[in-house]
Amino acid sequence: MTSTEQQPFLSIKDLKVHFSTEDGIVKAVDGLSFDLVRGKTLGIVGESGSGKSVTNLTILGLHNPDSTKVEGSITLDGQELNGAPEKTLEKLRGNKMSMIFQDALTSLSPYHTIGKQIGETYRKHTGCSKQQARARAIEMLTRVGIPQPEVRVDDYPHQFSGGMRQRAMIAMALVCDPELLIADEPTTALDVTVQAQIMDLLKDLQREFGTAIIFITHDLGVIADIADDVLVMYGGRCVERGTKKEVLSNPQHPYTWGLLGSMPSLDHPVDVPLNPIPGAPPSLLNPPSGCRFHPRCAFTEKVEGGLCSSERPLLEIVDGRGSACHLTDEQRRDFFTDLAGSAAN
To answer: 102-140, pLDDT tens digit by residue?
Structure first.
């Protein structure tokens, strides 16, 4: 594709993020690559400890350089971010790229009003006056659906409900009209109704501004609602990538099968038990050899030669679609068909 709109706005190439600890090196992200174009939403899904949040904090440069080794390339609109000076990253953070954190209550300062916290970011990047920053804060609170914004702008975070605090966080993240928005499980602590409102708000704002969004979650139901494309992470690596429809209706990796099997569905009878993935995510201090999912995978014995435990499966992406698994295409079709049939029955 040659149009400017379809060129990657964010490009991650072979990203590795390793932490030095007293116990050894934690390989939090270990060879991750993906692209994101403007106006699209990439959903990154996986269990806790899979490397989702670390990836996105690293994009923003929010890691400790004294204890973190970052390798690979992170380019935003053609500008390399890995190794960029802190002053460069400060100019980009909150301006060209921004983040909505999971817990708004702990992310907002209890000592300052909502309006001051929103306006502070705007003042830093525009150099405007306090009056202009306050007016901008009221405008953003209006945009995210806060009632009586000219009054609530002077409230403190504890005076807001959970849903309103999250809306205030979104207003803060969008106050400078960023071109990249990273949302780190922003609806996890909210009830279903408020969760749907927040997701509708993000979609409306994306249509208005053409923002590229990375949406981090462990919930495939949320992914089904908001994402255009999906990246499934496990043990610091991408194990599957594709469009939302491809990944949810025709998943290729046993880990994705496990995530879908452990999620309740309105299409299944209420008495059908869920099938949680056995075991626990791997230690990234001493990750398993070969495929990192193999200790928990029910299909390892189907692969000849013990490849699952000895050789890392390659992730070959063709037209945005691929998975890292030693199963053959025929085996994947057969096994997933059987699993889907068992769930339906």
So the answer is: 777 788 999 999 999 999 989 999 999 999 999 999 999
Its domain, for residue 306, covers: 249-344
User: How would you classify the pairing of strands 41-45 and 24-36?
Assistant: unpaired
**Whole-angstrom distance, CA of residue 91 vs CA of residue 93:** 6
47 within some domain: no
Domain annotation covers residue 56: no
pLDDT at 18 (0 to 100): 95
Residue of 187, 184, 203 whose CA lies nearest to 195: 187
The number of domains in the chain is 2
Out of 134, 153, 169, pick the residue that ends a domain: 169
Q: What angle do CA 201, 206, 211 make, to 5 degrees?
A: 140
For residue 108, the number of C-alpha atoms closer than 13 Å in the C-beta half-sphere is: 30
Residue 329 is encoded by which pair of tokens? Answer: 């295409």
What is the model's pTM? 0.90
Residue 323 located in a structural domain? yes
